[in-house]
Fold each of these.
Amino acid sequence: MMENKVFMSFTFYSTILILKMYVVAIITGQVRLRKKAFANPEDALRNGGLQYYREDPDVERCRRAHHNDMENIFPFLFLGAIYSLLDPSPTVARIHFFIFCVGRIIHTIAYLLQLKAPTRSVAYSVAQLPCFSMALQILLATTPYW
């Protein structure tokens, strides 16, 4: 596997995306602490009382960004891994992975910083293009075997 340039590129971009998801989780925790909005009563009690067992719009925004990452990055991890096994052009594959990664980073920044529309939806849409491309190529390569 380590000799597969496409898989190594996929591994690099996937790791960047996983680290980005960890950063969003940390940001969510920090916003919870700053806003004193805890999801569990025991956390609220530890940080001032049950009145802090509540929702907050800023925390919910972070949670939605994280949830959106899970809905999009997990399928990318599957598609990219299988796509890497199809022996695609390393340059084309790298472009697929790069576009998805940059699109997801811009999407997260737009989500968390509440950037003007349609920044977030454009980033989302652009990031979906390589996923659809990889899915189509996987289907074309595997159709003879169904």
Amino acid sequence: MGSIAIEEYQNFSKASFPAEANTLEYAKSLDAKDHLRSFREKFIIPSKANTKTKKVLRPETTSDDPCIYFCGNSLGLQPRATAEYLQIHLNTWASIGVHGHFRDLDDSPLTQWQLLAEHASKQQAPIVGASPSEVATMGSLTMNLHLLMGSFYTPTATKNKIILDWKAFPSDHYAIESQIRGHGYNPDEAMVMIGPDEGEYEVSTEKILSIIDQHASTTALVLLPGIQYYTGQFFDIKTITAYAQSKGLLIGWDLAHAAGNVPLQLHDWNVDFAAWCTYKYMNAGPGAIAGLYIHERHGKVEYHEGDGKPIFRHRLSGWYGGDQVGRFNMDNKFRPSPGASGYQVSNPSVIDLTSLCGALSVFNQTSMSDIRKKSLNLTAFLEHLLLSTAGSDPAFRIITPSNPEARGTQLSVLLKPGRLDTLSDMLEEAGIIADKRKPDVIRVAPVPLYNTYEDVWRFVQIFNQALEKCA
């Protein structure tokens, strides 16, 4: 499956940099050799002036003074293809109305609406290392997590715990909490949180396996993030999945910060299920339609020889999960589509799907292995400049793992207390957009598709100047 889904990922050693690395000339030399440098032109980079506007503006075709946008871990920039794809959809709707559901048009990059979700899923599959039939494009991340837990969280009186991350994104935490409560159990007893040792932020794989060991006999589900949103740690999905399953547990992954960021091989790693959003590293737009993965063994649909009734894994069913042949028979006899599409519920938003397809058209021109190659170097350059210019008594600590295989593009920088708001305001005034997480963390995410080494160098200069003023 890996050979179908993504190129074999090769381990890259951590990049090293010469004495002259902290110069604009050196940063520009890295950009000149960047194998993805042409991709920056495929995105609209806001100008510094536009980031401060309070009016709706038409974006400049180009800008001599672009902002430094290090917030792709929160919301990716708009691909230039997005407007083109959306206009094609609007023209289709205006021209043929309801016929757009079943008619393919010449010279359109979009399929008929009835098949557009499958079209988007096929394009997402290589990004997450799955076969197209194992991916569904639908809903939103939290809604999909609820739907997936509706199928995979089947607690009993003796096995009702869910093992989760110590600092899960609030939406995940609330979803897990409400699922447990909805089954009549106490979240205070049934939520097992895996956290780092005191004073640390990285959670070792060994500790995760140990917690699974301790609670395996009373656990119904393991649900963890592929990348921890606060620290940026990339968990060892393959090892943790295999260990949980060896203990008889089902395991799912929230890939909000992993999809489009790091190479994944969900099928080959035997992951039971996963879900992700598409508005971060996949650049589909704010609140865009999400994706989910179901391993093929959980998507099988078989039929009784006698009465022809379908046999399938329980799920919270909806009309759009029915097989396409019989979907419009309206006979109220649910026959799910095989694979992940059988977990769909509602008719998906075509405008959302169109925006996603526009964004995915950019990914189609490269590969996750090429993206990862630049990501490792770009983030290593950021780390090197931050640490080499920090002085003997630094005002910050990088809490993201230093091992490049244990992180994506993001570095989480923990500031000394009382500096976050002032520093963030100074960065924003200088035309730098990054993400802050109270009380003291700034998350910096140079995205390989549109950020440059020069961006990184300029950011570090301004960051250090701002830190001096915060002291």
Amino acid sequence: MKRLLSLLGILQLLAATAAVYKQWIPNTNFETASNWDKGRVPCARDVVHFDKDKVVSVFVGSPHALTDMYLPLNGEFLLAAGAAFTAFDGSWDPGCDSGGTVRFADAEHRSWFDPTLWRDVLPSGELRPGGPIFSVHEERVPCRHDDVLFQPETSFRVNTDSAQPVIQLRSISVMGQELNTPSSWAGYLGGPSASLQFHGNGTLQVTGSGCPDKSGCACGNTLDGPRICAALLRAPGRQCPEPACQSPLQPLGHCCGICGATINLEFTPDFDLQKYQDKLVQELLSQPRYAGVQLAMSKVHRAQTFLGLVSRGAAPLIQIVLIDDRAGAQAGTAAEQLAADIMQDIAQHGEALGISSGRMEVATGSAATGQVGSPPVSRIAAGTVMGLLFSLLFLGGILFLYRRGKLRLPTLRPQHPWERMEEPAPPAPASDKGFDNPVFSVEPPDVDLAEVASKDLQVFYLNPLYNASETET
């Protein structure tokens, strides 16, 4: 029995480790100072003002005395036990010397696809401890198999505008209640609070299912990648600092260029993403020389084209992104060394790990971008396309000159059987007399050439243009 309980505990721990929980950070609570234009919670001498045309859902956790309050036309107040609003009776309030108008801040602009508004947490809601693992920007927003947590005893309003009509999730927890089935989520959407908390053209859908593939599942936020990056760049602070390398890398799903290394792996059905990530952390990232190096690993889909022109869909691959905390000329050098060690390990044990091939790209502060592995298909495709373009240009030039009359092409007319030429007459039979010369009509002298040649030991030639009778005197 103890062994069974121990096994169940291990299985639950593994399930918690594999699941990803993302928590929404902002809220619309009455007691949150940042939700007011004065940067403080209203006090007794204040006049509270909610814009009448704004839709709000406000959680009130304690009693408040106010001078006056203007309410919106559409909204709700969620009162905790003991919370209430009372009219100010004019008594002295030590924290409120002078009153004024305090306005509730606008929460309409808070987007679901803003990666700065989410954080990774444990199933309990506690912040996940920091470590060498990070996520690219598209995966900092909830993915299709993630669990979403809204903090208990908080209100919120989220803009779900999306490039996709349905935003799939494994589960959503609201007010401490986990909704992990389509029916439970549908029941919540039918209640009074859902329309005040979620607005936009994207519809949230709870599936209740995690990633079924041990090689990992793509996040599913690719279509909203531009929206994610736009929200990131609008956020305060330098979300994308200027990289120190000359040609920074641009990993898939990441909004900023990086100095470091990326490795793209092609895999077989035996590949296990979580086990391989644990192997890299335990055997390589834990070494002191790789202190300050961070790793992101996930399944992505890279677009494929035929000859760089016609789309052939997208092929799944495992993307590993490595960055470090080095600066200046040393930026990315530690990540480069770790990537080289990973490639060496793949060369030795890749088949056993379910990895069929890998390609590494590197960008550091002291060197230009380089590649190791199979030659990039893009260069081959680009060369092929350029050759085709030059061929078409050459043929187009010939056709243009022909149309302008600057170039004449020979006309080739096929010969049909019924148009054959008349057969030539057979040659005359050969004779020993030679052939007639139309220029020379003089009969040769009756001389035995053989006798003369043997007598004078000379060789004579007859000249048809020379007449012997004209030279006799």
Amino acid sequence: MKRRAGAREGKEAKKQKLLEELGENWLPYLTPRDAEFHQLWKTAYSKLLLRKADKIPQELHHIVQEAFLTLQKHDCFFQDLVRIKGKDFLTPVSRILIGNPGCTYKYLNTRLFTVPWPMEDYEIKYCHPELFTACKALIKLNDYLNIEAVQALQEQNLSGTKETEDTAVTDREQDFSNFIKGSLLEDQSSLYTPRNDCTSLKYKTSYNLTLLNYMDPLQMPYLKQEPYFGMGNMAVSWHHDENLVERSTVAVYSYSCEGSESDKVNEQDVEGRDPADWHIGLKVAWDIKTPGLAIPLHPGDCYFMLDDLNMTHQHCVLAGFQPRFSSTHRMAECSTGTVEYIFGQCEVALHNLQVDSDSAALSLKSLEVQVVKEVEEIHNKVEFEWLRQFWFQGKRYRKCTDWWFEPMAKLEEFWKKMEFMTSLVLGEVGKGERTIEQRNKIISCLLPLLTERQELRKEWTARCQCQLAMSLPEEQKPKCHPFWKDDDPSMPLPYDLEEVIANLQTLLE
């Protein structure tokens, strides 16, 4: 947590320094109307590939755009209540995460849980047959973008310094009729490829989830202005995408609803980008020498951020006038973000708990400091990285599927056993059967973890009761869970740990 906070502070310092250097001036940026646009794209932004809508199979456009509208009809897009610099904000963009069953994706201190797309060997019940069709369309888009990304990387490797009029835009067509029938549904196990295979194309492009976005700019009371170039209204501020497999490709399908002729802006009357059109903005990270790019996105266009572009550059999404959907396909770094991982962690923790076969009494196998520390760290992880994250998002997942409720119930059972394990450690510390040195070592290990637990419970409780949280629709309002009163006979310890912590501090004195 401290490392993340330090990284955020470093980014803020860089941003302030850049703004100070600019003063009242704007940095230059280019659009397709500028003569140097394609040359700049080729030299400074060559790892951004645009696939225009007319080069993408029409059948794919149809099923994907239908999927967007279906998810919107069933109210499956949600604004996220995120945490930035200790404050809560509602995202201007509404989102839903769809992907491999049991995967999660974390951004801005918020863990999103995938609505699973159809995969072999998984039984997934959707709340409506139309949602199954929508998710099936998105995994077909995922497979298509995977193939396109692999070929794009191969083309970049083969082309080298070969001169072309515009290397960023390619004109390759795909035989989609065969592809659509054979859409792959296998488990994308390449995520766990050993490090010596990390450079493989499959490792960089086997997307395990997509983050879908929706925004209607005309319904927004306020949109932030782009601060460096004067590019206008931003739907998404400058950023690097978080928590991705290193050097993996991000693929984005963009669909802005068609506008009327009255929405068109006379290009001769506009300096810079056309504000009626959606654009992706690109800049070299923390660089004031290289001009930025504003690339128009027309309905059905796709773009790919290849290789290390997401690390060396930043991007933003510049709003147009019309509502827009996008599907952003990613190789999320899920080594610590899957149900299988957290269940494995619970198994490690609960290995230290034993149950008497006759009396069913609970006891701990070991009170070694390292064992106690590991168990309590897992305890905190389960509570604050999983249970509270899930319930903070209210009942939103019930709109699509009930898939997550069984593993979350199981996870809560494991967490409750860990509450008993903490209680057993406290009981052993209070018995006086150990030397003062042994006791103090256990307390010194336990105290910071319980203090962190207490502080985080206070923070999450306050977040659930904040004004923004209370303003959300009923099914989206955060739920402070787990929560219990001190007289709850099923719980071995109080929710408020202040007295427990004070008693431990007294024993140390």
